[in-house]
Amino acid sequence: METLSRILIIDDEEIVIDSCLQILARGNFEIRTAQNGTLGLEMVEDFHPDLAFVDLKMPGISGFEVLEKIQEIDPAIVTIVITGFATINSAVEAMQLGAFDFLPKPFTPDELRLITQRGLEKRKLVLETLALRREKEMLREHFAAIVSHELKSPLAAVQQYLYSLSSELSPQMTEDQMRRFERIQTRIDELMKLIHTWLRAISVNIENIRENFQPTDIKVVISKAIESVEPHAVRKDISINSRVDDDIHPVLGDEGTLVEAVVNIAGNSVKYSPTGSIIQITVENQDDQVFISVIDQGIGIAKEDLPFIFEDFFTVSSDQQPEKGSGVGLALTRRIIEAHDGTIIAESELGKGSKFKILLPIYKNKPVEVTPIKKEPVNNI
Ligand SMILES: Nc1ncnc2c1ncn2[C@@H]1O[C@H](COP(=O)(O)OP(=O)(O)OP(=O)(O)O)[C@@H](O)[C@H]1O
Ligand SMILES: [Mg+2]
């Protein structure tokens, strides 16, 4: 049996509700109506609509507020704004609050049917995307279990036996036998490294990190990240200069994974930059976001490679690469940033250097206590 699509109409004008009910009466819909925002939101919770029409101008809580709340309750609900005062500004504002489309009053039956059909198609796409994402996360977890239990444990045992056997037998072994033994050990060590790479690639469980979100001080994140990549930079005589504005807003996040994200980016800058170069890390407030940028003077990334650098296991194959990587860091970093509702982009020019930009939404409710860190360059060698 075909399931009916659930439609909710929130509008204070009876005539609008009646005409919607009439026009949509012959479709495969289950329709509920509400004459104000408060009732509408209660129905969103009880009825779980696929599609919600929201009048922008209603007594009591406004349509804009209703839109915002629907997004909070279930961002997969497709919303369409109905309004008599259709202006570009209100349309843009409604879209920014997550509305899918805009229906100006008065509307014809065909306009309503068409927009309903498009809204439901959009809903189908949203649900399919969510299902795919869930499936991907499940595969990721399943893969993690297989890799760690079925591969890592037996291999660790083999590694252990080999070590003890080699120390036991080494007095009797010929040079050739020793060499072959070492080769076996090297191969096993490489396999172990590969397994750790896989485990690292799947280590971030988005739902888990979200559960631990707290107001987080980005200054601390940056200073911990710099501390972690500093030894590598010192070895290559690379200076890491940082400028973190004093009044940086806190973000709602998980400090550990945010440090990991910045370490991956700054670590790449160290890895893919020549000896004696400079890396600049800057943090500043930008409207409702915290903006972090990491700029290096390294080998850069070719235009054709740039779109792929955030994919799992992607590495650039070139003789210019000073160090070989496993292609996990940036994919992991993007997952971490997106779990924080942030964005990350890369700009680069081959041979000239790269710039990675992260934007994170600020935590608005209450400020956290901020501990000041050194403002001068952290590592000027
Ligand atoms: N700052 C940079 N300058 C030049 N190339 C870079 C830079 N950052 C990333 N890349 C390129 O993008 C690829 C993917 O980066 P990513 O950090 O995901 O993996 P990786 O550094 O190879 O390995 P790891 O998993 O150890 O981080 C790298 O292999 C490198 O070719
Ligand atoms: Mg890397």
Describe the structure.
The strands form three sheets. Strands 2-1-3-4-5 form a five-stranded parallel β-sheet, sandwiched between helices. A five-stranded mixed β-sheet has the order 7-9-10-12-11, covered by helices on one side. Strands 6-8 form a two-stranded antiparallel sheet. It is elongated, with a radius of gyration of 28 Å. The chain is built from ten helices and twelve strands. The protein has three domains: 5-107, Rossmann fold, CATH 3.40.50; 146-203; 213-361, 2-Layer Sandwich (Heat Shock Protein 90), CATH 3.30.565.10. With 381 residues, the chain is an alpha/beta fold. A hairpin with a 3-residue loop joins strand 11 and strand 12. Helices cover 48% and strands 19% of the residues. The structure holds adenosine-5'-triphosphate and magnesium ion (MG). Magnesium ion binds next to helix 9.
Order of helices and strands: EHEHEHEHEHHHEHEEHEEHEE
Q: Please tell me what the overall shape is.
A: elongated
Question: Which fold does the CATH topology of the largest domain refer to?
Answer: Heat Shock Protein 90
**Judging by the overall fold, what is the CATH architecture of the largest domain?**
2-Layer Sandwich
Percent helix, as a range, is 40-55%
Q: What integer is the average pLDDT? A: 89
Number of domains: 3
CATH top-level class of the largest domain: Alpha Beta
Low-confidence stretches: 366-381
The CATH superfamily of the largest domain appears as Histidine kinase-like ATPase, C-terminal domain
Record field, number of beta strands: 12
Bound molecules: adenosine-5'-triphosphate, magnesium ion
Q: What is the terminal separation in angstroms?
A: 72 Å
Output the strand order for the largest sheet: 2-1-3-4-5
CA-based gyration radius: 28 Å
Percent strand: 15-25%
Number of helices: 10
**Which class of secondary structure composition applies to the elements?**
alpha/beta
Main sheet attributes: strand count, strand direction, barrel closure: 5 strands, parallel
